[in-house]
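Sequence in, structure out. First:
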Amino acid sequence: METCFDFSRCQKSFKVYVYPQEDGSVPSPSYLKLLNVLLESRYYTADPREACIFVLSIDTLDRDRLSNDYVRNMQSKLQRLPHWNDGLNHVIFNLYSGTWPNYTENDLDFDYGKAILAKASMSDSHVRAGFDISIPLFHKIHPAKGGEPGTTSASNFPLEKTYLLAFKGKRYVHGIGSDTRNSLYHLHNRRDIIMVTTCRHGKSWKDMKDERCDEDNREYDKYDYETLLQNSTFCLVPEVED
């Protein structure tokens, strides 16, 4: 651990330094929300000399090259950071990595060096035990603080909700994960099981769409994501890798 983390920076206190925003650089709402939580916390320090941990202001949550939130030229941006030092004592946050059609798990499209990776959907084969951090995949509109209180109590199980099972998300016409999500329409009965998918993702989806895409897209648009999940007893999490 002493070769990839400087413990001397953390002996006096645990402080987190967040790099200032670059001119003209606007992070995604999700990353901005994450940064604001850190900036408002008791661990934040504006002095990098006091910091145990460093957090980028550059948005690294979505490293899918087809995404609108994908930040280009990350390697050169990292090299310009005054305290980068090959990622020592830095934490990189990531929710999505890789790109269609392979979606390679650890493909962030930049070298994060000795930085700690705080990542969603990490497998045992890629996580560096005792060093990296596995975090949940959170939705863009997930509240940063609090939220509505839950309604579940010990006396109302099984839950009486509109739908028994639901899923709303992307499907992949071909490539990795296609077999799983392309089969979900068989379960969709429009009553208590709602399985709706869309082919609309990426810039060339129309060129590769199959005979079900138009029908699937129409059915997909009938359901609001939040309303659907809030009114479902169970929510399916289908794999995206075969």
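Second:
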Amino acid sequence: MLLTTRNKEVAQHIDRRGFLREPQCLSKEESWELLKKKAFLGKDDLDYRINIDMEKLGRKMVARCVGLPLAITVLGGLLTTKNTLNEWNLVEENFSSYLRRGKGHEQEQSTVSEVLALSYHELPYQLKPCFLHLGHFPVDFDIPTKKMFKMWMAEGIVSPMLEGEETMEHVAECYLGELLDRCMVQVGERGST
């Protein structure tokens, strides 16, 4: 039997003789590599796009993630939509203020919570209700996209951009795509369409 938990005491309570594996946090270099993969996802010639100032800023932010892959992935998803140094500076300023608010808590837990909060607050206004609507489903539940799109439309969360230009289903697909790009949703299975 395999049990995963963030609380070591829970694992020890189940079976004191069982094998306990505690994954280590990523090193600084591994953290930076993960951030680059996420922040520059789908962009051509990865090394060409990263200027020195962006790299310094990225390394500074990723260091505050204390090697936690979830925090780094969320930060990378947030940065994937930012293409200029000014945009990265804005994220870094907001990132710093969120982390300062979390001081006094356990460092790792606080970091993840604050990065997730920043990721949510940085969402465009039209994506926030879509993301919040996902809370209706259980954790790790496979959500059929067609059903979810219909729910978004019925709730008035999704509406056509301009009359006659795009269908509401196409707008919902775009919204889901943006949530995927920001690592706010995980793809379980892709269909032929």
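Remark: Residues 28-121 form one domain.
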